[in-house]
Amino acid sequence: MDKFWNIYVILLVASNLLIYAILSHWFRKKTLKHDFNRLNKCNNPQISRWFILFFYILVFNIIYLTIYIIFYNDIETYKLTFTKKYQKEISETQKNYDPIITNYFTHSIKALSKISKALKVGQYLFNNNCAACHNSDAKGKVGFSNLSDNSWIYGGNPNSIRQTITNGRVGIMPAMSNILGGEQAIKQVASYVVQIRTTKNNINLASGGEPKFKTICVACHSASTQCNLALNSPNLTHGNFMYGTTQYDIEETLRNGRKSIMPAHKTLLTVEHIHLLTAFIYSINQYQE
Predict the structure, then answer these.
(1) Which residue, of 35, 175, 205, 243, has the fewest CB within 10 Å?
(2) Secondary structure of residue 129 in the 3-state scheme
(3) Which of 262, 242, 240 is nearest to 149 (CA)?
(4) What is the largest CA-CA distance in the chain?
(5) Hey, is 148 helix, strand or coil?
(6) First to last CA, the chain
(7) Long-range contacts of 37-46 (CB under 8 A, 24+ apart)
(8) 110, 164, 280, 241: CA torsion to nearest 10
(9) CA 15/CA 9 separation, integer angstroms
(10) Are 118 and 276 in contact (CB under 8 A)?
(11) Higher model confidence: residue 226 or residue 271?
């Protein structure tokens, strides 16, 4: 069916070009006139260089389409050969490396985190599947978490990391403008959150934001402002916030809310690959159990 439609389109295009060429040649030296309501209308002859240019384009297209028809089977054969060669290389690679990866699967995550060869495989998996969001150094980008520090919402132990990679995560911070009571309240609460982390803030604003935080925000972030795993809320006392730690960044988070999605990789990676990837991430983070 693909070959039929290729030939059909080629013939359709070629015939249209040829018909247009014939008509152009026929009209090229003619000056047609007709009267309408005592007005003479004429069409001027086509400029010779335009016709010559079109003629060369026509010849080129006919030659190109003819060559395509002649070598169509060779092109399809090349595509098929290339595909088979690629599949063969993948098969040979899997044959050579699958036993090694299977052997690593028998080791614990903590044991693998100390085996340099296993970590190289894990780093390769990370660079190909995770670095686009978390960067090659695992420090993350705006909106994506830093995997190299000790601030983990869902836990940085081997089981938690494996669960995150396998099933993914979804984190939602609702917009709080209406709940807190307007723009001034957002500035106050944001200033209080900054105060939790550092003394560089507006003390007056922070004092106004503290009671709002302790009556509204505490429901998710807890009185200690530590991680609340049940509600997926981050630790506000230290670590790098995914969307920034400045007064402005926190105001934007409170004003508009945030939604973070970590996609599940269980359909993208094998269990053995996830095991090695978990070991690599565990080896670079500073999580203390």
Answers:
(1) 35
(2) helix
(3) 240
(4) 99
(5) coil
(6) 62
(7) none
(8) -110
(9) 10
(10) yes
(11) 271
